[in-house]
Amino acid sequence: MYWDKVHETMPRAELQQLQLRRLQAKVREVYEKVPFYREAFQQKGLSPESVRSLADLAKLPFTTKQDFRDNYPLGLAAVPRSEIVRLHASSGTTGKPTVVAYTRADISLWSEMMARTLTMCGVTSHDVVHNAYGYGLFTGGLGIHYGAERVGAAVIPMSGGNSKRQIMLLQDLGSTVICCTPSYALYLAETADEMGVDLRASQLRVGIFGAEPWSFRMRDEIEAKLGILALDIYGLSEIIGPGVAQECPQKNGLHIFEDHFLAEVVDPVTGEALPDGKKGELVVSTITKEGLPVIRYRTRDITALHHETCACGRTLVRMDKVTGRTDDMLIVRGVNVFPSQIESVLLEVEGVEPHYLIVVDREHTLDDLEIWVEVSEQVFSDEIRTLEALGRRVRAEIESVLGINARVKLVEPRSIQRSEGKAKRVIDRREL
Ligand code: DLL
């Protein structure tokens, strides 16, 4: 099912013409209206006329999170305040948040992208969408909300929190679609379980989960516990929010809406373009957004691109599931470790729950990696010998995948803090 068949299935040559036209116009616009871009271009000896083909995109300077910080709050905006109708912000781990601005046309574009997203997941005007992404400065809640309204579905603006009430309303209002972070979906499943409710018997059919990394194993777990099809949604505030890319039921990567968002994957160290299939850092340029257009934004998200047409018929480039960020990679005793690798290992092991915490510390000069893992109720009440054997098994699996050893601490069911939004998986106590 397509929302906008023309653009979602456009032959590549035609799509590229459209992209080039839009890119040239946007580059001209930011050069004229945003001093940051004019200076960045001039420093490289570039002008809007330097962009003659799509390949010329690679000559343009990158924009980074730091540039947003340096121009806090709205120095990168390309329109006067009077044209801005909405502001959102993403909370950074340090310092001031990143603020983003939308014009009326941007809100319409965003709704359109979200309508594509939802339609790709099979959502229609007959659906009831339980939206448990946070409403507020976070883009998840309102992004899904406007998309669901555009499709004509009935949207329930739940936001996060009060999980028991969520389960009650989910059932009573006959929700067919659920949207939230994957970690919150698991928490809801757990809450339902405690309440004696079997979500598999509810009307829920499909879930649209994102805003944080989650493994394929986690998908299996969610699909089994909720009895639904679970699809991955990707986006970031700096670009527009959710609605940058969406996985279709083929489960074959996420389609990037590249008639509006140009995608490149570059080597995170050299900044050089990488070919299809090679993992690197995703870089995105917005070629139609008005309020806060961004050229070559370094997302820090790690993925690879694929250009072959998908079995669903969309010609739009696909990106792999984001497995980590260049900045949440841990370097433990010199080895690169991504939390998602640990997650996949844990979820392979029977008796272990998908709730974990990675604690890194430094004893004298040596890094110490400890992984806290919840065990299932059944294992927990079993003999100590069983627990010990499980601990050894997890440890061995982790060692074989990461190539380093870690201490494994098996903890009681439900003892690791649950999150209503993005889960916090890593505690790094090293003072480096
Ligand atoms: O998380 C927007 C969003 C809302 C996406 C709802 C999907 C659903 P930010 O708070 O700015 O925006 O965080 C963006 O979250 O750079 C990724 O690191 C991460 N992220 C988002 N979606 C995914 C995903 C929203 N599907 C940052 N898989 C991004 C992995 C994701 N990571």
Architecture overview:
- By secondary structure, this protein is an alpha/beta fold.
- The chain folds into two domains: 1-325, Rossmann fold; 330-431, GMP Synthetase, Chain A, domain 3, CATH 3.30.300.30.
- The protein is 32% helix and 25% strand.
- It has twelve helices and 21 strands.
- It has helices at residues 5-8, 12-33, 35-43, 65-70, 104-120, 139-151, 163-172, 182-194, 216-226, 339-348, 377-380, 384-402, and strands at 84-90, 98-103, 128-131, 154-156, 177-180, 206-210, 229-236, 241-247, 254-256, 261-266, 280-286, 297-303, 305-306, 318-319, 324-325, 330-332, 335-337, 352-363, 366-375, 407-411, 426-428.
- The strands form five sheets. It has a nine-stranded mixed β-sheet. Strands 10-11-12-15 form a four-stranded antiparallel β-sheet. A four-stranded mixed β-sheet has the order 20-19-18-21.
- α8 links the parallel β5 and β6 (206-210).
- The protein starts with a helix and ends with a strand.
- 5'-O-[hydroxy(phenylacetyl)phosphoryl]adenosine (DLL) binds at residues 90, 133, 138-140, 210-213, 232-237, 241-242, 299, 301, 322, 325.
Poorly predicted spans: none
| CATH fold name of the largest domain | Rossmann fold
Helix content: 25-40%
What is the CATH class designation of the largest domain? Answer: Alpha Beta
Question: Short description, anyone?
Answer:
The protein is 32% helix and 25% strand.
